[in-house]
Amino acid sequence: MNTLGTPQQPLWIAIIGSGPSAFYAAEALLKQKDVAMRIDMFDRLPTPYGLVRGGVAPDHQKIKNVTAVYERVAAAEAFRFFGNTHVGRSISTDDLRRHYHQIVYAVGNETDRRLGVPGEDLAGSHSATAFVGWYNGHPDYQGSSFDLSVERAAVIGIGNVAIDVTRILAQDPERLASTDIAAYALEALRKSRVREIYLLGRRGPAQAAYSPAEIREIGELESADLVVLPNEAELDESSKPDTADPEAKKNVDYVQEISRRGEGSKPRKVRLRFCASPVELIGENGRVQALRIEKNRLVRDDSGKVSARGAGEFEMLPIGLVFRSVGYRGVPIPGVPFDEKDGRISNAEGRVLNPATKSPLQGEYAVGWAKRGPTGLIGTNRADSVATVKAMVEDAKTGRVRSQAAAADPAAIPQLLKSKNVRYVTFQDWKRLDALELARGKTLGKIRDKFTRVDEMLAALNGSANQP
Length: 468
Ligand code: NAP
What we know:
Elements: E1 11-16, H1 20-30, E2 37-42, H2 50-54, H3 67-74, E3 79-82, H4 93-99, E4 102-105, E5 111-112, E6 125-127, H5 128-135, E7 152-156, H6 160-170, H7 183-190, E8 196-200, H8 212-219, E9 224-228, H9 230-233, H10 246-259, E10 268-273, E11 276-284, E12 287-300, E13 306-318, E14 321-324, E15 328-329, E16 338-339, E17 344-345, E18 347-348, E19 351-353, E20 360-366, H11 369-372, H12 380-397, H13 412-419, H14 427-444, H15 454-460
Bound molecules: NADP nicotinamide-adenine-dinucleotide phosphate.
């Protein structure tokens, strides 16, 4: 190796995003004892942790304990955090390319996939992304509103996000009162009149995307009955081979057990329907009033994949609220190659690809959902980031970095941001916000009371006096 990566000339690395994949990349990088490096992590929000803060449901607090690992990473001397720094607005990718030998895009998937059916944009039809961001106090969604005065809602898709949304709607809000749910969301849920939630899967119980533990949580709610129609719980011939997968088998057994329970007598109902695709949202005066669904039959193709095909039988569900939970997609960063079809950064095993030549763009990488799409649990990102870091180290050792990068001066990025009037937030600043949120929570009998607006966060940090 050249002199790059020695203490005299450390490798300068920028990581864009501060969710799990970003921190696992930083962790794996810092374990490389034979390469000296400096890591700067950027996030458009003043707060770190991505979906751990803005996505994980408030009643799943234990999952958030992973941040203890991220805090240890952030404590490394070679690590800096630049929150409230939007790559694309506060600082350009060209700025980063001038300053860093390697850049890692850990930007996740910021938007939702579209359904592509008429009526999708009627008032009362929302993306699950917006609802999740709202109850979690994400600054982008704190101003959203959802009409919870209706009695019936539909959640489209049966992945774990759909299950989170359903659970938040169906459970007794008092169970959320001591969590870190946004205060305005708790108030709105307390007034909610939603009593019936249709949870709609386009394929059958053997192809459900939710995890067995997640659907069981719905089945065990005190405030709601999970209801499955016996004929929809039965497996058709094409689905039977899918139960070779132990998770799918557990899911099938569970919904079959549930289907034998009938309606139950709890105040709310979650009606889990299978082989039902939304075909149109019907509105009145611009607001959704009903959802037309088509029954599907399942077909196994030569590759072994079971797909849903419309059977020409329709049903109308009278609902006043719809949450579309059919997956996420990435948002392109100006100047970074993006695969429109797959909704993620063009890459081969984490190396960003030049779209014209299909060869790696020297010194640029992707991790997490930005790399592989919106799949997997938080822990999935660890191995995924380790694999990208392996490629980064290989490339650094063979000199395949952004060699023109004029890093070296630790003051360069803070100066650049100051010259652009960016009030960046350091990790020490975040720790102060964290302590304030915990203290506010304590007085309210909650785990944490989140700041939900960026201006509020910056005001709490007392202006620029605390900036190093
Ligand atoms: P997901 O697991 O991919 O589920 C998407 C769901 O939408 C599937 O049921 C899919 O059905 C359905 N769908 C897609 N297009 C559709 C269409 N046009 N019409 C009707 N249904 C459609 O995605 P996700 O729920 O957004 O979750 C993303 C990732 O985060 C997953 O890996 C998930 O496990 C993870 N996550 C985990 C947790 C947790 O552990 N508690 C919580 C939240 C998220 P098909 O299967 O037929 O395509």
